[in-house]
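Let's practice the habit of predicting before peeking. Look at the sequence and jot down your guess about where helices and strands might fall. Then scroll down.
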Amino acid sequence: MGAVVVVAVLAALVVIPRLGSPGEDEPAGTVVANQTAEAPKQEAAAEQKTVAPAPQQITPPPQQITPLVPGTAKVITEAPAAGNKVALTFDDGTCPSCVAQIVDFLEQSGAHATFFPNGIYGSSWDPQAKRIRALVENGQLTLGNHTFSHGTSTQIGPAAFGADLQRNEDWIEKTFKITGRPWFRPPYGDFDSGTLAAAGEAGYTRVIMWSGTVADSDLRTEPYLLNAIRYWAKPGRIILMHANYPPTAKALPEILKILQRKKLEPVTISELLGDN
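Done guessing? Here is the structure:
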């Protein structure tokens, strides 16, 4: 009996530890309750510490209208280091159906090109304005300035030339909601130091000439145009064309096939020069 009493007394003195080992003043069960309450707080803190993704860099739309920045005009005829790239460029726009057909071709084929329109031929360009703007926005088309009236720059003088260039810029901005800067092509390829100075003051710092032509400022046959492309189209070349006569627009699908056989990629003037 004495042994049984001793065992019972010792059993009563054994301390059963509680989870969390609360302090002397804490009632049993307090620590467990606190741990349960702390868990959501820790999860919330972990969520708050999640690093937010870095903001993506936003590329401005091509040829976005910005304040004028004068510069030095540089004359460009080709891009020797352009790999297999070639630039098809279209001037003027005297033929409304031709302009529409060229835009159709670009949309359907995915080919890239450059336009140098004159505001005096607005009746050809205005109906295609939304489509042209969309082509510019997706990088398929570059739009430059060819002056409003297509006058001979060196004959009218720098002041009159500068005014006509700005008039066409105003028309481009109003019609297409973009700027033609910095791309400029002088009518007839005619320029002098006064022309270049005036162009630079107007923010037109890339004077785009050419290193090949299909000679379609006059009416040409399709075979003539295709032979000209076979001869002139080479890597880095800038090809002069016009939106003035139906054969040019009609020949474009076959022109694209010729370029593909020559392993040449038609690009915008911006892409050819790696410039913006």
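How did you do? The two ends are 104 Å apart (CA to CA).
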